[in-house]
Amino acid sequence: MEENLDKLFDYRALIPGSGRFASIVGIGGGAGRVVDQMRKCCLPDVQLYAFGMNRKEMDELSLCGKYLIGQEGLGSGKDRFLAEYECSKSFPAIESVLRGRLVAMFVVCLGGGTGEGCIRSFLQKAREVGNKAIILVATIPHSSEGAEKRKNALGLLKALEPMADALYTVDYDDSRYAMLTEVYQEADRKIIEFTDSLLGMVLRRCMITFDFNDFRTFLQFPTPSKRIDFFMLTGSLDFLRKEVKDWWKKLPAKYSSADEVAMAVFSIENADWSDDKETTEAMDVVHECFLQLPPDAEGKWGIYSDETLLPHRFRLRVFTKCKR
Ligand SMILES: Nc1nc2c(ncn2[C@@H]2O[C@H](COP(=O)(O)OP(=O)(O)OP(=O)(O)O)[C@@H](O)[C@H]2O)c(=O)[nH]1
Ligand SMILES: [Mg+2]
């Protein structure tokens, strides 16, 4: 009963302009660096934070919201149990960055002591303070970093999934790059794009209504896994028309056909929607995406203006959840 009452949540008092839509929190060295780079996204009403145990790494971040876990500032020494213990002393700071926010998004690069030791406490706190959408973004270490490290990370991720409402992962073994620095850069880019795109669906001015309740419907749409898959295409309408034929083929291999899509959200963007012919053609692109959804799948969409796009260039963002 309580959950039903909560289904249509009246969030309007909280946005816009309250600065309290979302907190994005990077936990550990790598994750702190990713969140630091999100400053350039300029999403309104989103606060960025980093929590880490290494003072030197924390000093290098330009973020205002930086919190050192533990007193020493020397890192966890790859010890997740020490990190977990030290993290318990930071509960007041963790609660203060999460309280009153609709969305809590945590970024963690699995494979290190700080991130792995602390993430569970952050997810628990988000539930306790009543964040309405809890999103976990995690990277999975590359095989070359050690098979044991990777196995532990995958095991931890499984244990964490029930604690979040949605999950987005970047597996370093899926990268086409050979050098780890390039693998990390690619991951940083993907995480920033995903975060900017997902929160932007609600925060940017939409020409039809895509609101926080639509957002939550997508996150909570019942699927066996809480994972969200995402890709983005930018180009002319001719390019998009070609690319959206069999668009589901751009999804990970677990989508063996379009039938595997349980729910999809599409966003179409352009600098100037005043040209009726172009608008109709752009709507046809979205329509084509919908036509490929299986009959039992749910779809939602939004139209957005983005003045940074060049004339006659359009951007399509696609989010999906899988039936398995
Ligand atoms: N995307 C990205 N991944 C990184 C970066 N640096 C490290 N990683 C990955 O993150 C994993 C964890 O490293 P850190 O983030 O340094 O670990 P930590 O959570 O700070 O924990 P400790 O350093 O052990 O206290 C590594 O195994 C790498 O796979 C980075 O700058 N960007
Ligand atoms: Mg570190």
TrEMBL record:
The keyword Nucleotide-binding is assigned to this record: yes
SUPFAM superfamilies, alphabetized: Tubulin nucleotide-binding domain-like
Keywords: GTP-binding, Nucleotide-binding
InterPro entries (alphabetical): FtsZ/CetZ (IPR045061), Tubulin/FtsZ_GTPase_sf (IPR036525), Tubulin_FtsZ_GTPase (IPR003008)
One GO MF term attached to the UniProt entry: GTPase activity
PANTHER family named in the record: CELL DIVISION PROTEIN FTSZ-RELATED, MITOCHONDRIAL DIVISION PROTEIN FSZA
Listed name of the protein: Tubulin/FtsZ GTPase domain-containing protein
Domain Tubulin/FtsZ GTPase positions: 21-203
